[in-house]
Amino acid sequence: MRIATWNVNGLRARLEFVRAWLRERKPDIVGLQELKLTDDKFPHDAFAELGYFAAVHGQKSWNGVAILAREAPQVTQCGLPGQEEMGARLLSADAAGLSFTTVYVPNGKNLEHEDYTRKLAWLDTLTAHFAARQDPDAPAVLCGDFNICPTDLDSWNAQQLRGAIFHTPAERERWRSVTGTGLEDVWRALHPDTQAFSWWDYRGGAFHRKQGLRIDFLLATAAVRRRVQGAEIDREWRKKQAGLTASDHAPVWLDLE
DNA sequence: ATGTCGGAATTATTCCGA
User: Fold this and answer.
1) Catalytic residue among A145, A154, A185, A248
2) In angstroms, how far is B13 C1' from A107 CA?
3) Domain range spanning residue A70?
4) I want to staple A104 with a disulfide (CB 3.0 to 4.6 A). Which of A21, A33, A194, A222 is the partner?
């Protein structure tokens, strides 16, 4: 079974690109972020043609998350309680025997912006939400765009960017709090010394200059980790495909027994 | 080059957010 996360940067603009990737990689569950559309605009039929059912938590213009699965995902949480004003950024559903959550963590903009403080608060709320889980040993996945570089190895230029947004001690402390609820960054566990990125700015040829960040993660409980066979960042799909523009994020996936 | 995208507001151009 293959489970994936992908910030698609606008599902209407990315639909054919995403469909091409689904045909090629055949994931079983996918968390999507940055849909940038309302629920009523979600292209259920286009995914149904490929054998996927979707659960959606969208909003106009910005944010928005969804879960694709081979059987209809059973929604258990829509939005992060207490943080609704920050937008549609969390969706949980039971799918294929997993408790599967996908998130789009607030970007924060910069250290002077009020959104930075709100990002930290959002992450505190997320940690409390997961710390209160009924069964910490159940098979659960928390995936998405976290907008944090957990360590220097996850940044193309940690020296120059030390203390900058995505790299601050406060954000990294929140990262440790989230993972401290029993959720491990599976890709990193399998590739402890590898530098690889999941996001590259569209500007300035960042992708070809290898100027990226690893900010997209699949976190899993021990019950899931025991089943892991592999983890990949699908860098090929950050590239233009048959004239279709890529997202600025690559998909990331895990293969489970 | 603060260099590119996607979306919204308004109608090809400007703004926001990332």
Assistant:
1) A145
2) 27
3) 2-256
4) A33
Q: β-strands A2-7, A29-33: how paired?
A: parallel
Q: Which nucleotide is nearest to A204 (CA to C1')?
A: B3
Give the total number of structural domains in chain A.
1
Q: Is residue A104 annotated as part of the catalytic site, yes or no?
A: yes
Determine contact, residues A143/A217, Cβ cutoff 8 Å.
Answer: yes
Active site residue A116: no
Query: What digits encode the pLDDT tens for the residues A115-173?
Result: 999 999 999 999 999 999 878 789 999 999 999 999 999 999 999 999 999 999 999 99
CATH label of the domain that carries residue A190 = 3.60.10.10
pLDDT tens across A50-97, in order? Answer: 999 999 999 999 999 999 999 999 999 999 999 999 999 999 999 999
pTM for the structure as a whole: 0.98
Q: Which amino acid is at A33?
A: Q
Tell me how far apart the alpha carbons of residues A238 and A234 are, in angstroms, rounded to a whole number.
7
Which nucleotide is nearest to A147 if distance is taken from CA to C1'?
Answer: B18
Which residue in this structure is represented by tokens 């069964």? A135
pLDDT in tens, A168-207: 999 999 999 999 999 999 999 999 999 999 999 999 999 9
Footprint of strand B on the protein (CB under 7 A): A 9-14, 36-37, 60-62, 106-107, 109, 115, 202-205, 245
